[in-house]
């Protein structure tokens, strides 16, 4: 499913932008969408986004720009939905927002409140642009530069510096001779999109051709220059124009992170990946070539484009067809078509990717009101998905699949690893764990049969007075007894939790699976970070690609930071160590006899690791639902997830790779060459 927010007035504009969380203590989740009204008194509409990525009802603001709007022409009448024939009529750099005023030939700058992203303050007065009918704006926070492209009778790009005091006077126009009028007649033969390169060293502009008048479109590039004089950083007046082969009506564009390539939409066929061949240093001097070209079947006009950091793919929209088309950023091949026709919108224009979500603007058509549609880009089944206001929580038992010295995360490929681990989950567990674990396993020791993930932690040992060691067994959570199942029959293992930011109806109260006081034993709880950077599936330290916003137990999570914007389920697991078997063996001096399987003679600590292995979209289905615990699925109860009996769980096992005794009375801990000192 998807969701959309209706904009309560006739919106004849485009310009959509997402703001990363401006301050770590913001009372909201710190994101907003900004759209210009493009009416006679132009204004910026700010729609706040909640922690779930959806819009917060009743809290939108409208702030006048001090300038005027204006629409382009199609034939002899004002253009309807596609009023400016461009992308990015608003843009953001740091805590400043910039918006064009097509009817007054000016650009406005706003300061965005750090506490409330919907509160905008106009900085200075709107600044005059030397061109006519400005339609698109770009800003560089690194260089403190803003550039505006105009598309009227006087067309081209002009730039200026900006500061906390506002925008300085714009420099001379870099003229585009496109033979237009003011307002322009489009959409062909007009300026499309101005934007900075990923490293902010070059200003690019796409210009649409007009095949009916034998006018060729092009990509213009102007380098950012640094001078020792008082001028400082500026944009060169000299640039390069390139006509990528096979393109005709270049429109929206987006840089592709980690590369020098650019993804562009072309209203004549679909989308393309462009390369300048010379690398970043030559971006403004080398001609662009087409690396890949994707033809979108059934298009009306594929015009707007964005790249999602979460999926590493591009998304394009069409003003005449209500759908999102996902395309490869390597060769522009079509990955998926997301049909949104059920919501009744006539089509989509400007759009923005933020984390795993896509925000797309439908400007309305006089009958259907303007709206913003929010789509989850991370779905794998071709349908738009979003968690919305659901509150899902999974709690399930996993019996032991193996106890041995392997650690494919910290010591991949090393046989044996440094110390013993207890492992639960799928039977694809091995020393390296390559590829899709969910597709490689044939069974799992977890209650949910679609979870082939592996969860492992260090093992607890009892140290006898005579210096020998014995592994401490685990016992299961007694509250996990399913209908017709006996929880004590679970072969050791762990209790696994997947939750969203909190538990519905519980606010920030602690949620525990065991009623204190615990009669006997030691319980270890491991919580995993729930904010992902949206790009890397791993990092050298196996931690930096994730970020934790919680500080213990199941409390409501704080918003994810801009560096790690993608919220993933909160994973935690519990292990109960049954120490009662050693009740009569404690040292006579009362010292603490329990030690972990790793060398903890210098101090105590614990650790755990996890390898994702849910099949297909099974975990996403659960998180998108509102099921809680057993209601998500258990033997005898129909749920969103498939389950198995305890007996079936216990049958699954992993063949031992490291042949050594881990269960008998041992003279030393496996993998540890020196005995550990017991600590009081």
CATH classification class of the largest domain? Mainly Beta
Helical residues, percent: under 10%
CATH superfamily of the largest domain: YVTN repeat-like/Quinoprotein amine dehydrogenase
**Can you give the mean pLDDT?**
80
The CATH topology of the largest domain, please? Methylamine Dehydrogenase, Chain H
Total beta-strand segments: 47
Q: What structural class do the secondary elements suggest?
A: mainly beta
Number of structural units classed as domains? 2
Radius of gyration: 30 Å
Distance between the termini: 57 Å
Strand content: 25-35%
Number of helices: 3
Describe this structure in words.
The protein folds into two domains: 3-376, YVTN repeat-like/Quinoprotein amine dehydrogenase (Methylamine Dehydrogenase, Chain H, 7 Propeller); 393-651, no CATH class. It starts with a strand and ends in a 29-residue tail after the last helix. The chain is built from three helices and 47 strands. Mean pLDDT is 80; it is low at 1-30, 380-391, 478-485, 501-518, 552-556 and 674-680. Strand 38 and strand 39 form a beta hairpin. The radius of gyration is 30 Å and the shape is elongated. The strands form twelve sheets. Strands 8, 9, 10, 11 and 12 form a five-stranded antiparallel beta sheet that branches. By secondary structure, it is mostly beta strands.
Please describe the topology of this protein.
Blueprint (H helix, E strand, L loop, with lengths): L2 E4 L10 E2 L12 E6 L6 E7 L11 E4 L8 E2 L2 E2 L11 E4 L2 E6 L4 E7 L7 E3 L4 E2 L5 E7 L4 E7 L3 E9 L2 E2 L6 E2 L15 E6 L5 E6 L10 E9 L6 E3 L4 E3 L7 E6 L6 E5 L3 E6 L13 E7 L6 E7 L4 E6 L2 E8 L5 E6 L11 E4 L2 E6 L8 E6 L16 E6 L1 E5 L16 E5 L11 H4 L13 E5 L1 E4 L5 E3 L22 E6 L22 E6 L3 E2 L13 E2 L18 E2 L2 E8 L16 E3 L11 E4 L6 H7 L21 H6 L29
Antiparallel strand pairs: 1-33, 2-3, 3-4, 4-5, 6-7, 8-9, 9-10, 10-11, 10-12, 13-14, 14-15, 15-16, 15-17, 18-19, 19-20, 20-21, 20-22, 23-24, 24-25, 25-26, 27-28, 28-29, 29-30, 31-32, 32-33, 34-40, 35-36, 36-37, 37-47, 38-39, 38-46, 40-45, 41-45, 42-43, 42-44
């Amino acid at each position: 499913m998807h969701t959309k927010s209706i904009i309560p007035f006739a919106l004849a504009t485009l310009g959509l932008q997402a703001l990363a969380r401006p301050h770590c203590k913001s009372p909201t989740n710190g994101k907003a969408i900004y759209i210009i009204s493009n009416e006679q008194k132009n204004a910026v509409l700010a729609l706040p986004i909640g922690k779930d990525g959806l819009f917060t009802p009743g809290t939108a603001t409208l702030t006048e720009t001090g300038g005027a709007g204006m629409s382009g022409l199609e034939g002899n009448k004002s253009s309807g939905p596609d009023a400016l024939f461009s992308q990015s009529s608003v843009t953001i750099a740091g805590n400043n927002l910039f918006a064009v005023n097509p009817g007054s030939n000016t650009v406005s700058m706003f300061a965005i409140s750090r506490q409330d992203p919907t509160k905008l303050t106009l900085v200075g007065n709107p600044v005059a642009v030397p061109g006519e009918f400005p339609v698109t704006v770009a800003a560089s926070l690194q260089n403190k530069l803003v550039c505006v492209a105009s598309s009227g009778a006087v067309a081209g790009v002009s730039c200026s510096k900006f500061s906390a005091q506002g925008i300085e006077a714009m420099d001379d126009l870099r003229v585009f001779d496109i033979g237009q009028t003011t307002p322009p007649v489009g959409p062909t033969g007009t300026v499309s999109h101005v934007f900075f390169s990923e490293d902010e060293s070059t200003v690019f502009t796409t210009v649409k051709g007009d095949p009916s008048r034998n006018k060729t479109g092009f990509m213009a590039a102007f380098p950012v220059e640094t001078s020792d004089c008082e001028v400082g950083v500026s944009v060169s007046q000299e640039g390069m124009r390139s006509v990528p082969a096979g393109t005709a009506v270049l429109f929206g564009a987006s840089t592709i992170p980690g590369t020098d390539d650019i993804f562009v939409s072309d209203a004549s066929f679909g989308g393309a990946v462009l390369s300048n061949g010379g690398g970043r240093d030559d971006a403004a001097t080398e001609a662009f070539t087409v690396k890949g070209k994707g033809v979108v079947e059934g298009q009306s006009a594929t015009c707007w484009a964005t790249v999602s950091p979460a999926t590493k793919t591009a998304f394009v929209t069409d003003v005449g067809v209500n759908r999102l088309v996902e395309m490869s950023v390597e060769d522009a091949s079509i990955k998926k078509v997301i049909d949104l026709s059920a919501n009744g919108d006539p089509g989509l224009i400007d759009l923005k990717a933020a984390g795993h979500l896509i925000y797309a603007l439908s400007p309305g058509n006089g009958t259907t009101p303007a709206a913003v549609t929010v789509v989850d880009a991370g779905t794998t089944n071709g349908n738009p998905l979003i968690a919305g206001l659901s509150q899902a929580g999974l709690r399930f038992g996993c019996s032991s699949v193996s106890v041995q010295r392997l650690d494919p995360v910290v010591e991949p490929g090393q046989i044996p690893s440094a110390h013993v681990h207890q492992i639960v989950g799928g039977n694809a567990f091995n020393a390296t764990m390559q590829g899709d674990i969910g597709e490689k396993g044939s069974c799992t020791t977890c209650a949910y049969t679609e979870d082939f993930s592996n969860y492992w932690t260090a093992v607890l040992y009892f140290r006898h007075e005579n210096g020998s060691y014995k592994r401490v067994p685990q016992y299961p959570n007694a509250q996990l007894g399913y209908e017709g199942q006996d929880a004590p029959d679970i072969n050791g293992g762990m209790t696994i939790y997947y939750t969203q930011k909190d538990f519905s109806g519980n606010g920030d109260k602690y949620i525990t699976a065991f009623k204190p006081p615990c009669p006997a034993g030691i319980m270890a709880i491991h919580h995993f970070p729930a904010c992902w950077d949206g790009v890397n599936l791993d990092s050298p330290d196996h931690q930096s690609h994730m970020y934790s916003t919680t500080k213990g137990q199941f409390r409501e999570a704080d918003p994810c930071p801009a560096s790690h914007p993608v919220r993933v389920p909160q994973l935690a697991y519990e292990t109960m160590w049954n120490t009662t078997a050693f009740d009569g063996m404690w040292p006579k001096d009362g010292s603490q006899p329990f030690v972990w399987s790793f060398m903890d003679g210098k101090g105590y600590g614990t650790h755990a690791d996890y390898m994702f292995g849910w099949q297909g979209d099974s975990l996403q289905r659960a998180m998108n639902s509102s099921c809680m615990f057993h209601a998500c699925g258990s033997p005898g109860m129909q749920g969103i997830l498939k389950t198995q009996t305890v007996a079936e769980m216990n049958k699954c096992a992993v063949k031992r790779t490291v042949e050594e005794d881990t269960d008998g009375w041992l003279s030393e801990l496996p993998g540890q060459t020196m005995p550990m000192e017991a600590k009081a």
